[in-house]
Amino acid sequence: MEDRLKWWQKTNVCEIYVRSFQDSDGDGIGDLKGITQRLDYLKKLGIGAVWITPCYPSPQADNGYDIVDYCAIDETFGTMEDLETLISEAGKRGICIVMDLVFNHTSDQHAWFLESSSGKENPKSDWYIWRDAKPDGSEPTNWRSIFGGSAWTWSETRGQYYLHTFLKEQPDLNWENPEVRCALYDTAIFWLDKGVGGFRMDAITYIKKPAFTDGVPDAGDGMTAIHEMIANSDGILDFLHEFKDTVQSGRDIFTVGEANGVNASDLPEWVGSEGVFDMVFEFSHILLGLKEGTAGAGRIGWTLVDLKRILTDSQEKNAGNGWYPVYFENHDHPRCIDHYFPGTADSNMAAKIIGTLLFTLRGTPFVYQGQELGLRNVAWDDINDYNDISTRNRYGFLISEGKTPVEALAAIHFFSRDSARTPMQWTADKNAGFTRGTPWLPVNENYRTCNVASEEADPDSILSWYRALAEIRRSHSELIEGSYEEILHDSSQIYAFIRRGTTAEAIILTNFSEETAEYDAALLDGAALVISSAENSTKGMLEHLESAVYKRKI
Ligand code: NOJ
């Protein structure tokens, strides 16, 4: 059965936020050579593929997600030769490099956009989404961009508005134009020829635009969130099948789409042999407890039962033909301990629960750098310490609404994407061993105790737990190939499930509460303990925040 699986289903992936992983030249910004220096660390974590965030030339309005050249490397991160060295050194260790393809939009400094915006008559006039103003001169629709403000910006040279789902510096490409699609596919093939092992497809649910009509205002600004208007629009799958046929067909790579707006029920059309990608990141568990608002999210209560329902739904909808990228963190969201265990008294045990789920749910585990150390959110008291444009925009909006700086900062602390972007913590030395210069973003103050060197030396650390779980997943095939069945689903404390293989099954039990939790010990008849985060694991009882994996023959 296992042989039917592809290499990327059996391995683990690490997402690296290139700016923050390892600086090799002292300019305070992480780079490609820095990643090459740390490949052995990744290997020890059982990593077989590294997704690197965009390192293409870019004005960095959105830290590289605004690209001016899809087939080159930004000098901040190194050279093309550095990337080739990274690919070959990684390859020697059985690790492939996965590039981030940002195909919904370019930078407004991209040559394509400069040409397209130069006037209405030019060979690239139709490469972006241009519309006339309404008769009163206002924007073509009332759509609010994802980072706030109208999704339309006026171009003086062109005398029209252009659409941008994100920043005004990130104009959306017109996928209806076959020349645009061809040019994009060519850039993907350029990277395949360099030997990359796959692609993460940025913001891919927004490439198809439906009719340009006003939405019902969802806030006092009279606008409606663009996400609600355009995500996963009818016809998008035609584009993506074309991408798959042109770029992926016949190649042993994997694709993973960032698919906000694709729900569990849509998955059969999106993944698997009949789908368009090998995996898609859906957002239900990441958005749990968040409420959209005009200036970013607000928070609402949630229970473990809600989280279990969401995870089980994704597992079940991906059963059979589909495959799931298991993730709890990335560079756009709060650190997972703060998200799922806010205010916990025992972050070591809490982090181990997430690590356990990451490696035991059905799918390919995606570790985000620093998650394996238990890195936490930051809460700086000066907006100038924050770099992330969406954080800064949200702060500005709150101030314009009359909030004091203290209130506005309190509101952004939980959500800021910078929490996940602080430099990697390697040692207890100055700047956490990330750079010998001045880091581009402050290091999280907890680096003196929370760092790779100290956790490597501690068998009870979060890093040791992640390494152990990665090895357990590798060596117990039911954790890779087995089916998923949730058990104890009415429990408000325990999340538990069985991964059933052909000759054995693993029983995974996690106690999300800070109190002991009891369950029927008969559930574990004939099962032996594989690993537990508690000192003494007892059948029938989980200690506070305990995670345990049992196994029995069937
Ligand atoms: C999703 C990326 O993960 C995020 O960092 C970026 O800001 C947007 N897409 C726009 O490209």
Give a structural overview.
With 554 residues, this protein is an alpha/beta fold. It has an eight-stranded parallel β-sheet with strand order 11-10-8-3-2-1-15-14. The protein contains 18 helices and 22 strands. A hairpin with a 6-residue loop joins strand 16 and strand 17. 1-deoxynojirimycin binds next to loops.
Q: Largest beta sheet, briefly? A: 8 strands, parallel
Categorize the overall geometry. globular
The fraction of residues assigned to DSSP E strands is: 15-25%
Enumerate the distinct ligands: 1-deoxynojirimycin
Tally the beta strands: 22
Mean pLDDT over the residues: 95
List the helices and strands and how they pair.
Layout lengths: L6 H4 L1 E5 L15 H6 L1 H6 L2 E6 L27 H13 L3 E6 L9 H6 L13 E2 L11 E2 L7 E4 L4 E4 L14 H17 L3 E4 L22 E2 H5 L5 H13 L5 E5 L8 H4 L8 E3 L2 H4 L2 E2 L6 E2 L4 H14 L7 E3 L8 H5 L6 H14 L3 E5 L20 H12 L4 H9 L38 H5 L5 H14 L2 H4 L1 E5 L6 E7 L3 E8 L5 E2 L9 E5 L8 E2 L4 E7 L1
Parallel strand pairs: 1-2, 1-15, 2-3, 3-8, 5-9, 8-10, 10-11, 14-15
Antiparallel strand pairs: 4-7, 6-7, 12-13, 16-17, 17-18, 18-22, 19-21, 20-22
Bound molecules: 1-deoxynojirimycin (NOJ).
1-deoxynojirimycin binds next to loops.
